[in-house]
Amino acid sequence: MVKVRIPAPLRPKADGQTEVTVNADHVDEAIHDLVSEYPDLQENLLDEDGELQRFVNFFVNGTNISELSGTETKVNDEDTLLVLPAVAGGDSTSHRNGGEDSGSLTPDELRFYGRHLILPDVGQEGQERLKRSSALVIGAGGLGSPTLLYLAAAGVGRIGIVDPDTVNASNLHRQILYGYDDEGKKKVHAAKQRLEALNPHITVEAHDARFTSENALDLVERYDVVIDGTDNFPARYLANDASVLAGKPNVHASIFRFEGQASVFWPDNEGPCYRCLYPQPPPPGLVPSCAEGGVLGVLPGTLGVLQATEAIKILLGTGTPLTGRLVLYNARDGSFDQVDIEANPDCPVCGDDPSLTELIDYEAFCGLDQHDEALNGNEVDVETLARRQNDEGLVLLDVREDWEREIVRIGDSLHVPLADLPDRVSELPVDKDIVVYCKMGGRSAKAVEFLQSVGLDAYNLAGGVDAWSEEIEEEQPAY
Ligand SMILES: [Zn+2]
After folding, report:
1. Could you tell me which residues are beta bridge partners of residue 459?
2. CA of residue 473 to ligand 1 center, whole Å
3. CA 355 to ligand 1 centroid distance, Å
4. For 105-119, how does the pLDDT look when each residue is reduced to its tens digit (9 = 90+)?
5. Of 131-145, 303-317, 418-432, which gets the smallest average pLDDT?
6. DSSP characters for 195-217?
7. Which residue among 46, 310, 346, 391 has the highest number of C-beta atoms inside a 10 angstrom radius?
8. DSSP type of residue 54
9. Which is nearest to 183 in space by CA: 168, 199, 195, 194?
């Protein structure tokens, strides 16, 4: 018995069945058997002379019969014959509302996805669903590389990549998306090139940017599923919170040396989120990063493929996602384990009474001291201040006059006019970074010089409140 899979557009003419079995030795015979059992299919499959219509494709076990022996192709028991009306150049039912936007497949795509099309859980409907779907991959590194390759190969129609980095030779042992010649290129651009070469039927959107509290929600909301390929805690919490707030499934994996873990965080599907599992990040320095601790190059491959698998399942709406379960992989033992994980009703972002309803400063939340990176020299730019504004280790000092503060100010700050500073210097904290500002940076530069001379850690806000109003809080009044 040969299985004949009937695509959705033709099902009304086959009593709504998705699969029919026929007794046949050749494709030709199978189709005629099918038509004699369901005469309404005649015009869709055969022309007046009994030849196959030219707007229908037939696949035996995923291979187009045009590449085999045409209608003479032999079929054996357990073989699957797939009937696929073409969507261009013909008059098939699926073409009526067709075109790229509706997600119907072109003949080229039918060839590309042949092995998916005969898979019961995918089929033509599933493949079209993938084509209409979208995924955002945060981080195009070790996890992102295999994930992106498989999402592209599977035909996920629109793939977004967000990453600010360039390809470095030390990436290549695990970031298999790139080649030796890509060194120095922006990852998102090299990735887009590679993925579109792999599958020209998809769209790849390159977001050459750091994933930040400013752009996260906007990005996440534009895609159906989020894949967390990040490598640091601030980005992980940010990816989690943005996904929860936007109601998107967050496909998670993390790796270290020889071990990895994966899950799907999806509170809208009754699962926990990352914060339910890990309410607090470890203190900085306790857990070394992959850059410090090393990682077996193939390990992110295994975990990234799991992420791609979960994302594709979610987009297809098939199978059981890893929601509520955490898979643990130990490459050294070759062992997989899994544990159940539960939603925490007190979770600050997905719980019953969430306290976290918008994105926060994740660097500060994770206790990262950016001293060396951000506050070197005597100056701080307004972006750095915006990131660190809520940092407990930092205070703002306004050295302008009272009347100027009436017009505009930056957040909470201490206030000591420049002229009073020598008399009131004892009011300032000795154990914190003091960022000093005035209108444009002139008076504050003098203040910084003085404060440093008495041993305080003082930095000048470059451009002053004017720059802040121009770049950070645009609705602030100017003067
Ligand atoms: Zn939660």
Report:
1. 435
2. 30
3. 11
4. 999 999 999 999 999
5. 418-432
6. HHHH-TTSEEEEE-S---TTTHH
7. 310
8. T
9. 168
pLDDT in tens, 262-308: 999 999 998 999 999 888 887 765 666 565 567 889 999 999 999 99
Give catalytic residues, as residue numbers.
290, 438
Name all domains of the chain by residue range, CATH numbers in brackets.
2-99 (3.10.20.30), 133-362 (3.40.50.720), 370-471 (3.40.250.10)
As residues whose CB is below 5 A from the ion ligand 1, the structure lists 273, 275-276, 347, 350
The average pLDDT across 238-253 equals 97
Taking the CA atoms of the chain, what radius of gyration do you get in angstroms?
29
Query: In angstroms, rounded to a whole number, what is the distance separating the alpha carbons of residues 400 and 34?
Result: 87
pLDDT in tens, 72-92: 999 998 898 887 654 322 222
DSSP string, 137-197: EE--STTHHHHHHHHHHHT-SEEEEE---B--GGGTTT-TT--GGGTTSBHHHHHHHHHHH
Distance 247 CA to ligand 1 centre (A): 12
Q: What percentage of residues in the chain have a pLDDT greater than 90?
A: 61
For residue 450, the CA-to-ligand 1 centroid distance in Å is: 47
In order, the DSSP letters of 413-474 are -EE--GGGHHHHGGGS-SSSEEEEE-SSSHHHHHHHHHHHHTT--EEEETTHHHHHHHHT-T
Residue located via tokens 């020299």? 377
Residues 151, 140, 218: CA angle, nearest 5 degrees: 85
User: Which two three-digit tokens encode residue 74?
Assistant: 């032999």
The alpha carbon of 350 and the centre of ligand 1 are apart by a number of angstroms equal to 4
pTM > 0.70: no
Write down the pLDDT at residue 314. Answer: 97
Residue 19 in this model has a pLDDT that exceeds 60: yes
330 CA to middle of ligand 1, Å? Answer: 26
pLDDT bucket at 387, cuts 50 / 70 / 90: confident
Quote the Cα angle for 216-288-274, to 5°. Answer: 40
459: number of Cβ within 10 Å: 25
Q: How far is the CA of 368 from the centre of ligand 1 (A)?
A: 22
Q: Is the pLDDT of residue 473 over 90?
A: no
Contact by Cβ (8 Å): 189, 174: no
